[in-house]
Amino acid sequence: MGRKLLLDNIGVEGIRYYDAYRKHGGYRSVEKALKTMTPEQVTDEVKKSGLRGRGGAGFPTGMKWGFLAKPAGVPRYLVVNADESEPGTFKDRYLMEFIPHLLIEGIITSSYAIGSNRSYIYIRGEFAWIDGILEQAITEAKNNGFLGKNILGSGFDCEIYVQRGAGAYICGEETALLESLEGKRGNPRIKPPFPAVKGLWDCPTVVNNVETIAAVVPIVNDGGDAYAKIGIGKSTGTKLISACGNINKPGVYELEMNISVEEFIYSDEYCGGIANKKRLKACIPGGSSVPILPANLLLTTAKGEKRMMTYESLADGGFATGSMMGSGGFIVMDEDQCVVKHTYTLARFYRHESCGQCSPCREGTGWMEKILLNIDNGKGKMSDIDLLWDIQRKIEGNTICPLGDAAAWPVAAAIRHFRDEFEWHVLNPEECLKKNYGLANYAKPLEIVA
Amino acid sequence: MVKFSDSKLKEVEQIIQRYPEGKQKSALIPVLHLAQEEFGGWLSAETMDYVASVLNLQPIEVYEVATFYSMYNLKPVGRYLFEVCQTGPCMLNGSDNIIKYIFEKLGIRPGETTTDGMFTLKTVECLGACGYAPMMQLGKNFREHLTKEKVDAVIDECRQKAAINN
C-alpha cells in the first residue's frame, strides 16, 4: 500500500468539517509556517520538494512562486485553479468535496509564502454544490482564527473567496481564468506579461491548481526534502490520478510516483483490471489532451522498459511512442471501443470549448470534428486521414494558448497509432456502422507515421 | 418586470464585497447565475439589461459574457433541465444510450423541450464526473452511474416534485 499525503484521512468520519480535520493534524502547516518560518523559508521548502504543478503542465511550483514580482504597495494574489474540466479528470473535485480544509490550509500557508492577503478559488460553474462546502470550510477556518486579520498573532492577514465559473473549459488556462474572474469572456491573454508580473487586475498573481496547493501542506509539515524522497527522479511526491473508462474500479487514487502503469491498471488496490474481463486496447493517461497510446506502448516503452506512473516515464519516447502525465486523467479503453469515435467526441469537445480568438483553433477544431464524424459514419475518404493530419499540424503551436495543441494532439496520436483503424472505416463504410474494429494487432508496435 | 428582491439585492451586494473597490465587474458571472435562477432559468435580453444596470455596466459587457459561457441559457428551458454529458469517457460508458433512452421516454432530442414545458434535454461536454459515468447535471447536482432505471427514477422524481409545488 503506497503512502498517502493528501488523502490519508479521507476515510475519517466528519473530515469534511473543521473539528475532525483539526483533530487529525489539520492546520499544523499554518502554525509551523506563521510561527517559525519566514515566507522565503516556506518557498524554499516548496522548491526543495520538487513539487510540479498538478494541473497538467507540470511546471515546478517553487520556481513559479519565485517569478512573482513584488513591487512595493501593489497587492499580490493567489488564485486557485479549480476549473477542473479536462475530460478524464475529476481529482480536484474529490479533494474539495471530501477534504476541503486541506485546500483551505494549503491556501493560507501558500499565501503567507508569496505575500498574498486575498485569494480566490475559481471553481468550475457546474460544481454548484461544492462552492457551499468550500464556503463552510472558510467560515470554520475563520471562526478558529486561521483566516482573517492577524492570523495566530503573526501580523499576517488572509481572506479567501470562492468564485464559480459558468461553463468554459478554456477558463482552466490561467490567463483565461483571470479574465473570467474579472467578469469577462474567458479569452486567454497574450504572454508575456505573465500573471506573475501582471495577473488579476494587473497585479502580480500566482495561479496554482487545487492539488498543487494541497500538496504544500505535507511539504511544509514534513519538509521539502522528505517530500522529494518520494517518487522517482523529478517526479517527486504523490499524485492524484482519476481513473475512468472501462476498468473495474474507476475513482481517484493517490499514488507514490514509483509504480508501473501495469500495476496501476491491474492491481486490485487501484483500477482492478479491465471491466467485464475484456482486454486492454488503449489508454489516454493524462487527460484527453495528451496522446493516446495503444496497449503495448502504454505498458512498455519503445525501449522495452516497463512504463512507470511518473512524468518522465509516461513521456518517454516523446510523442512518437510516449504520452504525458498531464492532469492525471487516466482514460482506459477496452477491446470493444472505437478509437475513431472516441477521437471524434474529443474533437467535438475542443470545437465546443475553443474561445474563437485564434483562427487555426476556431476553424481547425470544427473541420477536424466534421471529418472525424464522417469517417466514424462510414462517409470518409482515404484522403481525409491525411487532411486531418495536415489540419492538426497547422493548429499545433499556432495559437495564443495551449488549447490549440490540446485539440491537435489527440487527433495526431490517434492517427499515429491507429491509422489502420481509420483506414478500415473508410474501406468498410457499412461494416463500421455495425461493429467495431476491435483489438487488431495492437499487441505489436505499429509503424510510426512521421 | 425583472427586478431582484431586496434579499437578492443584498446577496448581490455581498458578492461585490468579495472584490477590491472598483472591481465590481468581477461580480458579473455570479450575478448572472443569480439572475438565471431568479428569472425563469434563462437570460432574456431584459434580464441581461437589468443585470447591467445593477452592476453599472454597459449592456454589451453583459451580452458578451452571457453568450460565452455554456451554463447560461439564452432561450427558455423546461422546468427541469437534463444536461447529459457526451464526451469521451461518458461515451465509453454508454452515454449515447442514455440520450436515446430519454428520447424514447420523453420524445425530446438535444435542445428540445417537452410540450408541457416540463423537461429540456441538453447535451453537454465533460462535467468532470468521468469515473461515475454516464452522468447528467440536474439543477445544482450531478446524477451519476446512470442506467435506464435511474433515468426513470429521475423523471418520476421531477414529476412528483412538480406536482407538490403546483
Annotation keywords:
heterodimer, A: 450 residues, alpha/beta, Rossmann fold, Ubiquitin-like (UB roll), de novo design (two linked rop proteins), 3 domains, five-stranded mixed β-sheet, four-stranded parallel β-sheet, 42% helix, globular, B: 166 residues, alpha+beta, Arc Repressor Mutant, subunit A, Glutaredoxin, 2 domains, 4 strands, 46% helix, 11% strand
Question: Topology, please?
Answer:
The complex is a heterodimer of chains A (450) and B (166).
Chain A: H1 18-23, H2 28-36, H3 39-49, H4 61-66, E1 77-82, H5 91-98, H6 100-114, E2 118-123, H7 130-143, E3 159-164, H8 174-181, E4 205-209, H9 210-222, H10 224-229, E5 231-232, E6 235-236, E7 238-245, E8 251-256, H11 261-266, E9 280-284, E10 293-294, H12 295-299, H13 311-314, H14 318-321, E11 329-334, H15 339-353, H16 359-376, H17 382-395, H18 403-427, H19 431-434
Parallel strand pairs in A: 1-2, 1-4, 2-3, 7-11
Antiparallel strand pairs in A: 5-6, 7-8, 9-10, 9-11
Helix pairs in contact in A: 2-6, 2-9, 3-6, 5-6, 6-7, 6-9, 15-16, 15-18, 16-17, 16-18, 17-18
Chain B: H1 6-16, H2 28-38, H3 45-55, H4 59-66, E1 80-85, H5 88-92, H6 95-106, E2 119-124, E3 136-138, E4 141-143, H7 148-165
Parallel strand pairs in B: 1-2
Antiparallel strand pairs in B: 1-3, 3-4
